[in-house]
Every structure is written in C-alpha cells, then in structure tokens.
Design goal:
single chain; alpha/beta; Spore Coat Polysaccharide Biosynthesis Protein SpsA, Chain A; 2 domains; 10 helices; globular
C-alpha cells in the first residue's frame, strides 16, 4: 500500500526528546504513513536511538547529514516525503492520541491543495498549562489583522504537499518565523480549514529554539512578523483590503466600549452588584 501521510521531524542533538517523539508517532502508526527524521548530524546519541527504533518500526526513515538550519531540513524532508499529505512534528512536541488516523478521511472530501488545522495545547517549560490555541479565523485578512489566533505549531496542522507548488518552499533565510510566513502564503492560495478538535501539543522547553527566540530575540522576531504582515497586506486585492479594514474598525470599537465599561464595572463590583 502506498504512503499517503508523511510526518517530518527535524532534529539536531535531541537525544533527550527523540524517543518520546518516535513513540508518540509509532503508537498511532498505520500502513499508509511514514515518519521521516531529518537529523542535522547529531553527535549526542540521537542517531543511534533512532536506528534502534527503525529495527522495530519500518515506518521510520532517517536522513542524517549536516544542513543549513531548520528551514533547510524541512525543505529536504518535503522533497523526500512519499505522502501527498504532510505534517511537521518538532522533536519536543507531540500529537494527541489517535489523531493521525483521523487525518486522511478529512482530506478525502477536500480539494487539492488544502490546509487543515485543529486546536493546540501550549505548555510552559515547567510542564504547567499555558494556553489553548483555537485558530478558527483563518481568512488571509483575519490572519493579517493580528486580532485572532493563528495556527501556532505544526503538531496541529496538516496540508497537501502540493501546496508548495503554489507557495514555494520554506524560506531558508528565515530561521524563526518560517512557519508564519508559510501560513500567510498558504492563505493567499487556498482557504485554510479549521477542525474544532484538539490535535497537537507545543512544549516550550527551556533549550528549545522557539523559547529562546522570545527570550533573546523578542524585538527582532516581532519586527520580522510585522514585516511579513506588511508585505502580505500590500498584495491584498480590494475585497480583502475592505475585509481587513472592517476587522480592524470593529476591533477599535470593541476596545472603546471595553474602556468605557471598565470604570462602571469597578464601581458596581465595589458596591457589591
């Protein structure tokens, strides 16, 4: 039976996480899927651990060689993927149980290329719960408005490999917001779909690149995001611009109402009403 779903995991020196990642996927494995590990030349025992799992689980494939960063590893994985539907699972994140078997039936009723996302749990570095990500506003103007949740982590989204024929590959000069850049580009070519189910888990572990981005490069990362939004806004057609303007206008009105109500609410709370 041919492979229809490819899970791609980029990793470099991820020995402490890799086995849980492999187990998370292996516990849901079925004949029509593969788990492609793109290792950047690890020296900490990551490769040896993966090779042990490969003996038992034939759906696991390993490519271990130096790369030019995460985006480059992701692009190489896309080119090697046998499945026509792909997802990325970072080595320290994980899927909810029994999610993978749900994906293929969803795509059977969708045009190609399509992008589908579910909901996401975000966990603090200490293991405590941080945020529930429910990205249900997914038109390009909604994403560009910066007023709604967006698909924050690839453990909660899947898409047709052929979408890259329209978007191009991941930007290899963008090492921190490549996923956001791709999602904005995807939304300009297809209608992103939301399924109101919990699919993924994003873990902000202390040594992860994502967490370090916010600790060490917060201003730079924010500037990158603004530049991406501004570039995308400049390409909107008239109806999309009108939708964006309406969203932003509504947001201002809501903010004004809330600001007016807050003093009243404080008074009512003080007098016990």
């Amino acid at each position: 039976m041919s492979v229809r779903l490819t899970i791609i995991t980029p990793v470099f020196n991820g020995k402490i996480y890799i086995e849980k990642c492999l187990e998370n996927v292996a516990s849901q494995a079925f004949p029509e899927m593969e788990h492609l590990i793109m290792d950047g030349g690890s020296t900490d025992g990551t490769v040896e651990n993966i090779q042990k799992w490969m003996v038992k689980y034939p759906h696991i494939s390993l490519i271990s060689e130096k790369d030019k960063g995460q985006s480059n590893a992701m692009n190489k994985g896309i080119k090697l993927a046998q499945g026509n539907i792909i997802s990325f699972l970072n080595v320290d994140d994980y899927y909810e149980p029994a999610v993978l078997a749900k994906i293929l039936p969803i795509f059977e009723s969708l045009p190609e290329p399509s992008f589908v996302c579910g909901n996401l749990n975000i966990w603090n570095a200490d293991g405590s719960f941080k945020h529930f990500n429910r990205p249900d506003k997914l038109s390009l103007p909604e994403l560009l408005s910066h007023q709604f949740e967006w698909p924050y982590n690839p453990s909660a989204y899947f898409y047709h490999k052929s979408l890259h024929d329209k978007t191009g590959m991941y930007n290899e000069s963008n090492h921190y917001s490549m996923d956001y850049e791709f999602i904005l580009e995807a939304a300009s070519h297809t209608q992103l779909q939301h399924i109101d189910q919990l699919w993924g888990n994003f873990c902000e572990v202390e040594d992860s690149k994502t967490l370090q981005r916010f600790k060490d490069r917060q201003k730079e990362a924010a500037a990158e995001g603004r530049a991406l939004r501004e570039a995308a806004i400049s390409k909107l057609n008239p109806s999309q611009k009108a939708e964006l303007e309406q969203i932003l206008s509504d947001a201002v009105q809501i903010k004004n109402v809330v600001q007016k109500q807050n003093p009243i609410r404080r008074i009512l709370k003080f007098i016990g009403i």
